[in-house]
Structure formats: structure tokens, C-alpha cells
Write a structure and sequence with these properties.
Length: 337
């Protein structure tokens, strides 16, 4: 009889505990050992333990308040992998927008699941962060209004300036600072930690990751324009240049005493003789022009296929190199009229 009662109590406790397991992310179960005299075999169960990857906490900022102050924001925590680029991770968390629970508290944002993939690249060098977005304008048309742009910039700036190593920020759309500025009804600008906007030096208005690293053997991760002096199986010799378009092209051409605005709305400045040798990823891909004067011939190839064919052309066009983790992962040849 005593054994039967103990068995019943055990079942009751187990059934009551099942609700706790379902509602808790971490559950510790403690089982008391019992000794009985029995002829049945004893089974041993071994449970496996999974160690969670280390996490770091960053903050994202969304618009808050009653709307009377368009720049007012509130902070929300996000856990990201501790070994990730925390600046890029925080920005990617921001552009994914607030959660439903956060929206229920009264915050809002132009960012949402629709904009979760708009960050093309984030480059930090000497305190300057260059953020390049895909074309997000159709996804948030009201962000260009006076109040809308104030809210947008407050969310972006406050999220990024939580990192002490950032002193200035330049935002781009499709590699163009001027395009981002024009969207917000202004010119290309950089912003400091106090929110003050500054005119951007012409070279910093170059498309892609720019052309400001004038010294040094390598290049930071990003998308860079220039010319290939040579290419081998595992590396390329790269001549970094400045590619300008739009208003930046007109400004650069005028500074150099050339026709301004330049023909075809682009201008290349290449005044630095430094040649950099850059490692090429074994999985690198190339979008190339078998006939450089005909954009209709643009084709995709592996790096090895392109390497075998590239020299059999009347001239070598400029290229855009994408560098990830210190290696060239993508080469895109640039057509010019």
C-alpha cells in the first residue's frame, strides 16, 4: 500500500511540473534517489548539455513620446553574438524595426521587417563610420518630411553613437552620399556626436566605401573602386581611385579644372600612385564585361574563369572590389560610355 501511494504522488508531482517546463526557458529538474529491492534491470539515462554562444547586449532606439518632439527616442536592448561586428549588428537590429510588444508600449519607427535587409555595408576607419544602404526610399516615403527625417536621423544616430569609437557618420544610398542627402532635402553631409552636420570633403563623397585611405597596404572591408594593375590566382594588385556621380561628380570635376558637370554624370579622380596587393577568396566571383565597350555582354563567372579570359580584351575596365574579412570576394567591372 505504501509503495502504491508513493507512485501516485510521484505521478501527481510530475503532471503539475509539466506546466512549469512549458513556460520557462531554463528548467532545472532534481530527482531524489530511491533504493528498492527488485529483480528488474536498472537503466541509466545520460542527458546532453548545449552551451549557448556568448552574447553581447547592444541598444536600438525607436521614436517615442506624443509626437511633439520628432527627435525623441527610447532605448531597447538586443542580444547579438559577442564575436560579431557590434556596430553592424546594432544597425541591423535597428533596421528590422520594433517588436510587436515594443510597438504596444507606444514607440514607432519607419523601420520594419520590410527594411530588415537594407544595410549594404558598414565601414569604420579613424572614427568615421560609412553606412551604405540599399535604396530604402520606396520603403519609407514619409521619412523625407521635416519631422520624418528628424525621427529617422535620431534613431540612426543614437543607435550608432552608443559606440565610443565613432566620431562621425556618413550615410549613403547605393554608394552615394549625395543621393542620401538629396532624399532628405539637403546636400551630402556627415554628422558628429553632438548632432551637428558638416560639409563632407569631396573625396569622402566618392561612391562605395570612398577613396580616403591614402596609405597602408590593405583596405578595410567594404566596396572600393579602382583599377587592377595585375591579377593572379590568389591575389590582385589594386590601384584605388575615386568614383563620383551626380552632384559629387560635378564638384570634383570643377575642383580639378575639368568640364563640370562632366559628361555622362560621372567623374574619376586617380591621383594616388599606391598599388595595394589584396588577397582573393577561393570562392570569389566576378561580374565582367567580355566586351568592355558593350554593357550587354555583362556576364557572371568564377574568379578562375575570369582570370583565364580577362587579358584577351582591347582594354581593362575599372572595377568595384567587395572586401569581406580582409579578402576580395566579388569583382564587378564598371562600364563607362
Amino acid at each position: 500500500m505504501l509503495i502504491a501511494i508513493v507512485a501516485v504522488l510521484t505521478l501527481v508531482v510530475a503532471s503539475c511540473g509539466s506546466d512549469d517546463v512549458a513556460s520557462s526557458s531554463t528548467t532545472t529538474a532534481t530527482t531524489a534517489e530511491s533504493t528498492t529491492t527488485t529483480t528488474e534491470p536498472t537503466s541509466t539515462t545520460t542527458s546532453s548539455t548545449t552551451t549557448a554562444a556568448p552574447q553581447a547586449m547592444v541598444q536600438v532606439y525607436f521614436s517615442s513620446g506624443d509626437g511633439s518632439d520628432c527627435s525623441q527616442v527610447a532605448a531597447f536592448d538586443r542580444a547579438v553574438p559577442a564575436d560579431s561586428d557590434l556596430i553592424a549588428a546594432a544597425l541591423n537590429q535597428l533596421v528590422a524595426g520594433p517588436t510587436d510588444d515594443e510597438i504596444a508600449t507606444g514607440v514607432g519607427s519607419f523601420f520594419s521587417a520590410e527594411t530588415a535587409d537594407v544595410v549594404s555595408s558598414v565601414t569604420l576607419e579613424d572614427g568615421l563610420v560609412l553606412v551604405d544602404f540599399a535604396d530604402l526610399r520606396p520603403l519609407m516615403p514619409n521619412a523625407s518630411t521635416s519631422c520624418g527625417s528628424m525621427a529617422l536621423m535620431s534613431q540612426l544616430n543614437t543607435t550608432l553613437f552608443q559606440f565610443d569609437e565613432i566620431e562621425r557618420i556618413i550615410y549613403q544610398i547605393d554608394g552615394s552620399c549625395a543621393l542620401f542627402g538629396n532624399w532628405l532635402q539637403t546636400e551630402c553631409f556627415s554628422v558628429g556626436r553632438d548632432g551637428q552636420r558638416f560639409d563632407v570633403p569631396t573625396n569622402e563623397q566618392a561612391s562605395g566605401a570612398g577613396c580616403t585611405p591614402l596609405t597602408g597596404e590593405g583596405l578595410p572591408d567594404g566596396r572600393w573602386f579602382g583599377y587592377l594593375d595585375d591579377a593572379r590566382a590568389d591575389s590582385v594588385d589594386f590601384d584605388l581611385a575615386c568614383w563620383f556621380n551626380g552632384t559629387a561628380a560635378a564638384l570634383a570635376a570643377a575642383e580639378d579644372g575639368e568640364e563640370s558637370p562632366p559628361p555622362n554624370d560621372y567623374y574619376v579622380r586617380n591621383v594616388n600612385d599606391l598599388i595595394r596587393t589584396l588577397d582573393v577568396s577561393t570562392s570569389a566571383e566576378v561580374s565582367w564585361l567580355p566586351s568592355p565597350g558593350d554593357p550587354a555582354t555583362q556576364a557572371d563567372a568564377s574568379y578562375g574563369e575570369w582570370l583565364a579570359e580577362r587579358s584577351d580584351r582591347p582594354f581593362q575596365p575599372g572595377v568595384w572590389l567587395t572586401i569581406n574579412e580582409g579578402q576580395v570576394t566579388l569583382i564587378v567591372e564598371q562600364y563607362v560610355p
